[in-house]
Amino acid sequence: MYKYMKRILDIVFSVILLVAFFPLFLVIAMMIKVDSKGPAFFVQTRLGQDGKLFSIFKFRSMKSGTPDIATDLLSDPSIYTTRIGRLLRQTSLDELPQVWNILLGDMSFIGPRPSLYNQYKLNQERIRLGITQIKPGLTGYAQIMGRDFITDEQKLEFDKFYLDHMTLILDIQILCNTIIQVVRSENVRNNS
């Protein structure tokens, strides 16, 4: 019952948010285009449910030509981040287009964040622990427990905890904590 209820809520709220935030999408897209060369949207291959790859959508916050690796693996992310990109990352607005991924069924609002296709060691551990059995999320338990300031090993522990304790109540707690942290800009690495 939980699984079906979660999917229904994902569809309903993703449609509402896509309609409500459409003007904001246009404004952000125009700001990105004015700020730097390249597309407004960034598409990247991520590991999804059951280990299947999918294309995740984000607002582009980095310069075109930035290496396709996790931001924390870049020697100096600040040299790649655009001016508007810093603001988008600080406010998590760069993640908004993933609402489309939720509507498509690639993601859910709540779940483990999807890793990059080339994070091979992390992906092997996610598969081994069964974390890829569930849809990746826009936000998750690991994000409210530290996000950019915890190690991959800690993220795996938090994602496994979520897998083992998934309930609608836990999802609501994660969502509420995420909103509070986004408003306060907590647990976000500043690449300025």
- Count of alpha/pi helices: 8
Rg over alpha carbons: 16 Å
Terminal CA distance reads 45 Å
Q: Specify the biggest β-sheet.
A: 2 strands, antiparallel
- The domain count comes to 1
What string gives the helices and strands in order? HHEEHHEHEHHH
Mean pLDDT: 91
Q: What's the total number of strands?
A: 4
Beta-strand residue percentage: 5-15%
What is the helix content?
A: 40-55%
Class per helix and strand makeup: mainly alpha
Shape: globular
> What's the arrangement of strands in the largest beta sheet?
1-2
Instruction: Provide the low-confidence segments as ranges.
Output: none
Describe the protein's architecture and organization.
- By secondary structure, the protein is mainly alpha-helical.
- It has one domain.
- It has eight helices and four strands, in the order H-H-E-E-H-H-E-H-E-H-H-H.
- The strands form two sheets. It has a two-stranded antiparallel sheet. Strands 3-4 form a two-stranded parallel sheet.
- A hairpin with a 5-residue loop joins strand 1 and strand 2.
- Helix 1 (2-20) crosses helix 4 and helix 5 runs parallel beside helix 7.
- The longest helix has 19 residues, at 2-20.
- The model has no long low-confidence stretch (mean pLDDT 91).
Tell me the layout of helices and strands.
Blueprint lengths: L1 H19 L1 H14 L5 E7 L5 E7 L23 H9 L6 H7 L3 E3 L9 H10 L7 E3 L1 H4 L7 H14 L2 H17 L8
Parallel strand pairs: 3-4
Antiparallel strand pairs: 1-2
